Every structure is written in structure tokens, then in C-alpha cells.
Amino acid sequence: MSDKIKVGISIGDVNGIGLEIIIKTLADSKIYDYCTPIVYGHTKVASFHRRATNIAELNFQVINDPSQTQHKKPNMINCWEEDVKIEPGMVTEAGGKYAFISLERATYDLKEGYIDALVTAPINKDNIQSDKFNFPGHTEYLQERDGAAESLMFLVSDTLRVGVVTGHIPVSKISESITVDKIVAKLKLMNHSLQNDFWIRKPKIAVLGLNPHASDNGLIGHEEKDTIIPALELARDNDVLAFGPYPADGFFANGTYLQFDAVLAMYHDQGLIPFKQIAFESGVNFTAGLKFVRTSPDHGTAYDIAGKNLASEVSFREALFTAIHIVKHRRETLELNENPLAFSKLSRDRD
What we know:
Blueprint: E1 6-10, H1 18-26, E2 36-41, H2 43-53, E3 61-63, E4 75-78, H3 93-111, E5 117-120, H4 138-146, E6 152-156, E7 161-164, H5 174-177, H6 180-196, E8 204-208, H7 223-237, E9 241-246, H8 248-253, E10 262-265, H9 268-279, E11 284-288, E12 293-297, H10 314-338
Parallel strand pairs: 1-2, 1-5, 2-4, 3-4, 5-12, 7-10, 8-9, 8-10
Antiparallel strand pairs: 6-7, 6-11, 11-12
């Protein structure tokens, strides 16, 4: 049982659908055959959302830290003592405050190795801002906590994997933020993740252009010629099988993405709009390039349906299982590298 994967779960905005999809996911007893979940929040807040989902039989085991986890059961670490006013669908200061408290405690345990992976429920990127959280989103916060020079927002599903060169930045700053070095760095991260986290031996990566029609040989912009193509050449010199740049509209419309193991988009909406259209319910957001494993569902707080028992848990459940699979792949890769098969030179002698 000591090898059972411990997955920490941050609850996100208490007024969103985070705890609803967490509770619906953990109500499936098969989950406990694969991991031991630990939710970072408070039982009183969970009870409010449990009543809204009509799942009375789910009872959290209250623990103080991950060393006390009970297998085959959902565990809860109470991260605060005071009562919290729950207002489903409302954007409140409390929603951001307790989302951060949950995330901060879970991230600490993740960094210390007390849990093996983190699955984050959706936050509101506005009301979570504070002196302690001054980031555009989870990805940037976790990269800073990990101390990584780069990370990759990597949206994954059974049929499509999409990463982005630039993440949560204004559209007006996209072009100036795209450089040869940045594209190459993202390609290397993506290639490494595909090999080590998804066990794809020789990944083929498609790279999208920035401009319409990938600039039509320079008629509509210069970024392809001056930046993207040189980056592709440099990446291939570093044993990354990267191809393109492809015009984004036709690339997705005609199914070309099915010929590749992953796609690198230049900016957030260029990659996430087609991804969510193709794999919305099953999509997972994975932060590649970090020492620890973090995933999340590929949707937001969904205030419009919060508290109404209408939220689908499919994407969250996929995020949970994706985290489990990546942890297993990393463990097995580490074991194989530490204990390689002994090399023996074949003899030409015959019996």
C-alpha cells in the first residue's frame, strides 16, 4: 500500500463548480483502486456542495497531513477553521481567498513530496489575486513554486495534444513575445514530456504559424520567415521532429492534427479553441516541464451552473487519471534508468 499514488486536490473557487465535480468524481468507488485522493479544503464547505449534488453517502475522512491518509476512502485536510459563506455563482473575495489557501497548502505538500500529484479545480483568475498570488493563472504560479525556467501549458486528450508558446498574455503582446529561443524551449519541453510522461519514443510535433495562412510566404506578416522557421530548423538540429509552420484553420479543419503526436500553437486561443471544440469534455490541462505532476480539467469555474447539480465531472475525472498515469510513467522511467539491463557483447562463437 505504500506505493499507492497520493493525489492532492485543490478545491478552486468555493462558489464555482470545483467541489461539485470533485464530489461526483470521488463518489465512484473504482477511483480508490488507482489512487488515494486528498482534498485540501474544509468539510463544512464540502458538505454544502455534497447536499447540492444529492450524494449523501460520500464521507470525507478528516486528516491533518498526508501521512494519515486512509486508503479506499476520500480524505480531507481542513485548511482553515472559520466558517465560509458560500454563494454559488457569485464572484466574491472569499471565493478567491479560500481557493488560494487550498492551492498553497496542496502545493507545499506536493513540493515536499508528501503527495505524488496535484489536480487543481478551477479558480477565478481575478478574485484570487493578492500579495501572495500575483500570477495570470495556475501554470505561472506552479512554475514559480517549482523554480523552473520554463513550463508548458499542455492540453491533452486521447486524440489531440496541444501546447502553447505564449499563455496568459494580451493579444497585443503575442508577436513580440515569440522568439526563436522561446519556440525551441517549448518544443524541447513538449518533446521531453511526450517521451517521458506519455511514452512516445519518437514524437512528431506540428507547429502552427502565427499569421493567417502561415503568412503566405511573407505576404501576411514576417514572423514565420524570421522566427518560426529558424526555430524549427534549430529544433530539428536538437533531435526534435518538428514540422511546419501550418496554417491553423486548415490544419484542424481537415484533420491534419491526427498525423502528429502533438501540436505547438503560437498563442492561447489559437490552440485552446480547437482543442476545446474537439475534446471539451475529455480534455485535460497538464503543466509540463515541472519536477512535479499537476493536471486540471480544461474548463473554468462555470458560475452560471454552480450549485445547480448540472456540472459534468468527466474532464476532472480525466485529469485525475492523467495525473496517475504520468506519475506511473515517471516512476517506471526512473526505475528503468536506475536499473538498466546489463550489456553483454554477443560472441561470434557458435555451438
